[in-house]
Amino acid sequence: METITELFLSATERFKYEVSLQIASLEKKEAIFYFQVRENTEKIIYELSKWNIKKGEHLAILSENRPEWIYAYFAILGIGGVVVGIDINLRPQEILFILKHAQIKTIFVSRLSISNLLEIKNQSFLERIICFDEIKEEGIFSLPDFLRKNHRPFTYPGISPDDLAMLVYTSGTTGNPKAVMLTHKNITSNLRMIHRIFKWDTRDNFLSLLPLSHMFELTCGMLAPFSSGAKITYINSLKPEVILKTMQKTKITYVMVVPAILRLLRMEILKQIKHSSLRRKIVFYFFFGLCAVLRTFNINLGKIFFRRIHRLLGKSLKFFVSGGAPLSPFIIWWFEVLGIKVLQGYGLTEASPVVAVNTPQQNRLGSVGKPLPGIEVKIKDDLKEGEILVKGENVMVGYYKSPEETSLVLRDNWLYTGDIGTLDSHGFLFILGREKNVIVLQSGLKVYPEEIEEELLKSSLIRDVCIIGKKESGFPEEKVYALIVPNDEHLGLSLDKDSEKIRGLMEKEIKNLNERLAAYKHIRGFELRKELPKTATRKIKKELVKKTL
Questions:
Q1: Of 398, 522, 543, 386, the residue nearest 452 (C-alpha)
Q2: Parallel/antiparallel/unpaired status of strands 128-131 and 140-142
Q3: Host H or E run for residue 93
Q4: DSSP states of 488-519
Q5: Model pLDDT for residues 184-243, shown as the tens digit of each residue
Q6: Which among 416, 408, 413 is positioned nearest to 435, based on CA atoms?
Q7: Antiparallel, parallel or unpaired: β 439-440 and 446-447
């Protein structure tokens, strides 16, 4: 299958009577079969075809994750259009930039997002708004009206593997975001690579937590399971307790996560331990220590000793797959002591997105795994440590309307990622940090903020942290500086009322960490924050943080 439309037609035929999508709440779940996805998609295609939408036209989706997002996605591609997924967390002016830059005339939107859209509608090129929910407002179409009509089979236009499938806007931590151009072949080639590693089938159930407007969730959390006949479950809350209850009720087998979600789940488990009886606390920490020792001998008895926690996760869970940002080896180790597998991978939007991933058979702690079959990875200038370069059919064709930006990252068929890493003798890739984030001292020594952030996040007293280089008058070089978001819930303290007490606790945490670090990596100052600005995949916007100092 060379196009996403071919993938869609094949999956909806092969798995016709299997459950494809389901909406889960604490009270009930609603199942949608593959044949229903096909019918609903073709009903939308039929309505879109009345508007004489040209092949290659850009159509947008602005919504939270839900089945209608999937119908709209396949419908846009089915008429030969290009999908522009917009993050619902963006501010109106950020949405407006994308609408104007991509010249969007038609957009699918949910009720949750429509107010932001209407605020900037008159400044854009928008001609048609299609709401996923029932709506009675002049000039806005209601998708349920489309879906109530009779199913009319549709003749799909000729779509080439080299046709553009998506414009994916990056998070834009510095200025306006760039639009990554991905073809059908870019995405389907990445899917074939993934399927050579993971053998998913109709017995699997994926929990969708990350935004579908981002490639990690779209490729790995939607297209990969959809083309395997698996189920995809959607929920309406990202609270840890709701996630855990959904995993229990719906027998989730896989979850695509970012590190922030794993940290939240860890805190939720620790919170439940904290509020349990003294006897249970003693039992938990005794067996945790025992399992940690046994793990050094490749003996993992976590599933036996921590059955209660496995029941909390639904017992059917096979793996968490983590991407989107560097994950601390400590977090992976912590979950694996409990008998819960975490597979870390690496990718970027420009690579559709997966480049490398650990597998159940080959999982090296601290690495992001080996490159997928069909992808070449090397370190710039063949150095032991340096910028990671990637080559493969999955690599984008360029940035939309930005030939200069494209020429900076695509050279001689290699994608220059901007990430610093190293390859070991067995082919495992290790990420050290982002090139633009590295703090270079006058001595020539380099400090990778991600390394220090990982260490601080081991503390249950800290919810978030951002390490940056900060210049001060009178000093010739940047100093390592920390912005810390305390874990108020664990501390039982409020930053508004107990700032001095919290500051004292953080000073102790930093002192303990500095004693374990080389002198040139020592944190020389810090400040407390209630929140740090983040992208939809929970990455901290370092450039924006620097502007607030």
A1: 522
A2: parallel
A3: helix 92-101
A4: HHHHT--TTT-HHHHHHHHHHHHHHHHHHS-G
A5: 999 999 999 999 999 999 999 999 999 999 999 999 999 999 999 999 999 988 888 889
A6: 416
A7: antiparallel
Report the candidate in 363, 349, 414, 412 with the shortest Cα–Cα distance to residue 387. 414
Distance between CA 464 and CA 453 in Å, rounded?
9
Strands 319-322, 342-347: pairing is: parallel
pLDDT at residue 258 in the model: 92
**Under 8 Å between Cβ of 96 and 179:** no
The CA angle 537-37-185, to the nearest 5 degrees, is 60
- Give me the residue label for tokens 């993934």: 194
| CA torsion through residues 180, 186, 188, 193, sign | negative
CA–CA separation, 480 and 527 (whole Å): 12
Residue 178 gets which letter from DSSP?
P
Total Cβ atoms within 10 A of residue 360: 11
pLDDT value of position 316: 94
Residue with tokens 């879906």, as numbered in its chain: 147
Among residues 313, 236, 282, the alpha carbon closest in space to that of 30 is found at 236
Closest CA to 85 of 195, 223, 185: 223
* pLDDT in the model for residue 10: 97
- φ, ψ of residue 281 to 5 degrees: the values are -60, -45
* CA atoms 34, 40, 42, 45: torsion sign: negative
**Edge-to-edge strand ranges of the sheet holding 342-347:** 29-33, 19-24, 231-234, 205-208, 254-257, 319-322, 342-347, 354-357, 370-371
Q: Among 46, 19, 55, which residue's Cα sits nearest to residue 34?
A: 19
Can you tell me which residue has the tokens 């979600």? 261
Q: How confident is the model at residue 475 (pLDDT cuts 50, 70, 90)?
A: low
CA–CA dist 285, 335 (Å, integer): 14
Looking up tokens 């940690």, which residue turns up?
Answer: 292
The average pLDDT across 340-346 equals 96
Helix (H) or strand (E) holding 316: none
The neighbour count for residue 208, using CB atoms within 10 Å, is 21
As given in the structure block, the two tokens for residue 469 are 């280089």
Residue with tokens 């990350």: 210
Alpha-carbon gap, residue 547 to 126, rounded angstroms = 33
CA torsion through residues 316, 318, 321, 322, sign: positive
Q: Is the pTM of this model over 0.85?
A: yes
Q: What is the DSSP string of 338-394?
A: TT--EEEEEE-GGGSSEEEE--SSS--TTS--EEPTT-EEEEGGG-SSEEEEEESTT
Closest CA to 549 of 532, 524, 536, 535: 532
Residue keyed to tokens 């929970």: 538
Residue 481: strand pairing partners: 468, 525
Q: Distance of CA 477 to CAs 36, 41, 185, 468, 469, Å? A: 61, 58, 47, 13, 9
38: DSSP letter: H
